[in-house]
Amino acid sequence: MSRTTRAAGALVTTALVLGLAAAGAHRWDGESWAEVSVMCCFSVLLLLAAVGIQRMRRKR
């Protein structure tokens, strides 16, 4: 496996774990599944954006 493939796999795994944890926390609060899914997608997008920004800074 290439380094990029391993990094992408780790990122996807981290995003999934965080998404599931966020879903459990929001659902435990009594929010609807629609709200939970929107919040989890938003959380994962923020994580991916943060990782992308860090990579851009490293390349400079």
Automatic annotation (TrEMBL):
<keyword id="KW-0472">Membrane</keyword>
<keyword id="KW-1133">Transmembrane helix</keyword>
<feature type="transmembrane region" description="Helical">
    <location>
        <begin position="33"/>
        <end position="53"/>
    </location>
</feature>
<protein>
    <submittedName>
        <fullName>Uncharacterized protein</fullName>
    </submittedName>
</protein>
<keyword id="KW-0812">Transmembrane</keyword>
